[in-house]
Amino acid sequence: MRVAVDRGSCCGSGNCVVAAPEVFDQDDTDGLVLLLRPDPPPEAADRVRRAVETCPAGAIHLTSTTGP
């Protein structure tokens, strides 16, 4: 699993940080998402998926680690 974020779409709700704090944080200046771990550990997969599902702005995306 690989994670990508679009800070331009982020609305700063913080749902991602609540769901997976080991992968996401919020910028102290503007409150927008910060991606701490683009390649999260397997044990965080469910929490990352929850972050994707609960992001109101759709600013978090999962990509495959295999293939182009």
TrEMBL record:
Pfam families (alphabetical): Fer4_13 (PF13370)
Keyword Acyltransferase: no
Record carries keyword Iron-sulfur: yes
Residues forming coiled coils: none
Cofactor(s) recorded in Swiss-Prot or TrEMBL: [3Fe-4S] cluster
GO molecular function, one term: iron ion binding
Keywords, comma-separated and alphabetical: 3Fe-4S, Electron transport, Iron, Iron-sulfur, Metal-binding, Transport
Record SUPFAM superfamilies: 4Fe-4S ferredoxins
Chain's role: Ferredoxins are iron-sulfur proteins that transfer electrons in a wide variety of metabolic reactions.
Protein name, UniProt field: Ferredoxin
Organism: Micromonospora carbonacea
